[in-house]
Amino acid sequence: QVQLVESGGGLVQAGGSLRLSCAASGRTFSNYIMAWFRQVRGKEREFVGCISRSADTTSYADSVKGRFTISRDNEKNMAYLQMNSLKPEDAATYYCAAGPNSSRRSSSYVNWGKGTQVIVSS
Fold first, then answer.
1. How far apart are CA 24 and CA 3, in angstroms?
2. Closest Cα to residue 61, out of 35, 80, 96?
3. Helix, strand, or coil here: 89?
4. pLDDT tens for each residue of 24-55
C-alpha cells in the first residue's frame, strides 16, 4: 500500500491556474502508475489523467487535454497536476490515485488520497 495526500486546492478565477500536489509514502512510489481523478458531488468520479512509472507517458481526458499537465518526481515521491486555463466546469474535488496499471477506470486504482477541493469562480 501507498499512502497519498493531496494539497494545493483552493479558489481560483476562471482562466487562472492551480498546481495540485500529491505526496506519497509507504511502498516504492516508482512502482505505481499515478493518476488524477475528480468528482462533483452527486456524480461519478471522472478520470483526469495518468502518468507512467518513469514519467515518459501521460494520458488525459479530452476535457482537460492541452490545459492540464501531470508530472511526477520519483526522488521526492511526489505527483503533480498543473491546471491552466481553468473553467467553472473544472470545479470538483480532485483525487490522486496509485495503481499497478495504466487505466481510465477508477476501479483499477487501489490507493487513494482524501482529495483536495478546487473552486473556479466565473
1. 5
2. 35
3. helix
4. 998 799 999 999 999 999 999 999 999 999 99
